[in-house]
Specification:
Length: 201
């Protein structure tokens, strides 16, 4: 159910609906993150996603506290946006064969979800402040900070290693001996051919 529904008749209704929306979204993300973790081949990426899974579980608990402070039972409402993002993530990952490219795809999908959550929490915080629900603002702010931190972490992984590897470029952090090994692997066949030519000559 979207925001433009006849069940929403006031700003309070809109705020509660938004809270139900993000509660549903976080619960769906808890279910979907293990699949992303399983698909990730980069160890740092897998670790970051595991950490965020634990954070997301805590975010669900904070949202339940927010409902309680508002005198409401925790409940979710269908969110086509998050369902679509998760479905797209599964479909894209299923179409990628190269594991290095798959890591880039996982990050792209995870960041799309993060950006949705960041926008939702920002809106909810503004509405809560306007409605005088100061008792739930710290809970929403805590979730927002974690979402922003997760997005920065994913961005750092993408720009630092994952995207370069996906395109076949060496990372700036590649160790000198790795560069030497790359050079030797390329030179070895050439040297073998030169020896064979010399022997024939």
């Amino acid at each position: 159910m979207g925001f433009f529904t006849r069940d929403i008749k006031s700003m309070e209704d809109l705020f509660l609906h938004g809270l139900q929306d993000v509660y549903y979204a976080e619960n769906q993300i808890v279910k979907s993150l293990p699949t992303m973790i399983e698909k990730a081949t980069n160890r740092e990426l897998a670790s970051a996603l595991r950490n965020h899974l634990r954070e997301t579980e805590n975010q669900v608990s904070r949202l339940e506290q927010a409902f309680e402070r508002l005198g409401q039972d925790p409940a979710g409402t269908d969110c086509p946006a998050i369902d679509g993002l998760i479905k797209e993530a599964d479909e894209v990952a299923g179409e990628v064969d190269d594991k290095r490219v798959l890591d880039a795809a996982v990050i792209g999908s995870a960041q799309a979800i993060e950006h949705y959550e960041i926008s939702r929490y920002g809106t909810l915080i503004a509405w809560a402040e306007e409605l005088g629900h100061e008792n739930v603002v710290p809970l929403l702010n805590a979730n927002l900070k974690e979402e922003k931190a997760a997005d920065r972490k994913l961005n750092g992984l993408a720009e630092g290693k994952v995207n370069r590897r996906a395109t076949g470029h060496r990372t700036a952090a590649q160790r000198p001996h790795e560069q030497e090994e790359d050079w030797w692997r390329k030179e070895k066949p050439q040297r073998k051919r030169e020896r064979e030519i010399g022997q024939r000559g």
